[in-house]
Design goal:
The chain is an alpha+beta fold. It has helices spanning 7-18, 53-62, 106-110, 136-140, 174-178, 184-191, 208-216; strands at 38-43, 79-85, 92-98, 116-118, 124-126, 147-148, 167-168, 197-201, 231-234. It has seven helices and nine strands.
């Protein structure tokens, strides 16, 4: 008797057929060195409300910035600027929020097909060939960091294919990182003369980011959830 394929296998196969045949998420399942964990440190004292260079650079690099076809509440938001207010002092800080690349990502836990996954180096990704658009991950993410593609997509980037009916989020510029380059948000921030973003290996005690974290003891968003984000915020 021939075994029936599982529901997960059927759904995954359907997604692969419908979404951009022949396009693969760069370095999604490739061998990734273990032992390191990529992360970000954002100095909120250098981040101002009037600057959105990181957002614009990300949108331009990956083609999600044209939201003219969707409602404002459905617009893609791989990275966004928010204001955080201290209820005790009233102080307001402006900071970018993106996928936090958690060590224990809730989005991965709830995904029924395995489309949401975490690489060995800590980068959390969405394989759009496997995503069925159920949006469980969007509901599970406590940081509102994922978006759903409601409309047909044009101007595709081979390094980050997008497709209608799938979920997407910041992937920490995985293709650039694998090529030895820096995330575009960091480079854009530097070009503005702010240098508010630091990128590196959180597990390497000799890395610049690990040394700086040990020095200033930055905060992470929603520490009460114990998901251990890979994005740290200094000055909060």
């Amino acid at each position: 008797m021939t075994a029936c394929p599982s529901r997960r296998a059927l759904l995954a196969g359907a997604a692969t057929t419908l979404l951009a045949p022949g396009w693969l998420l760069v370095a999604a399942q490739a061998a990734v060195p273990t032992g390191r964990r990529w992360g970000l440190l954002i100095d909120t004292s250098k981040c101002t409300a009037g600057c959105d260079a990181c957002v614009r650079a990300c949108a331009a690099e990956y083609g999600w910035g044209d939201a003219t076809q969707v409602r404002s509440d459905q617009a893609p938001r791989w990275i966004r600027k928010v204001e955080a207010k201290d209820p005790r002092s009233g102080a307001v800080k402006s900071l970018p929020v993106m996928c936090q690349h958690c060590a224990k990502p809730p989005c991965v836990d709830v995904c029924p097909t395995g489309a949401s996954f975490k690489r060995a180096d800590g980068i959390v990704l969405v394989d759009r060939h496997v995503c069925i658009g159920c949006r469980f991950c969007m509901m599970a993410c406590p940081f509102g960091a994922r978006s759903f593609v409601h409309e047909a997509v044009t101007g595709q980037r081979a390094s980050a294919p997008r497709g209608m009916g799938t979920v997407e989020a910041c992937h920490l510029c995985v293709g650039r990182v694998d090529a030895g380059l820096l995330p575009v948000c960091l480079e854009a921030c530097r070009s503005e003369g702010r240098a508010a973003i630091l990128f590196g290996d959180l597990n390497d005690p000799d890395s610049a980011i690990a040394r700086r974290i040990a020095e200033i003891a930055p905060a992470r968003l929603r520490p009460d959830l114990r998901v251990e984000p890979g994005v740290h915020y200094g000055g909060l």
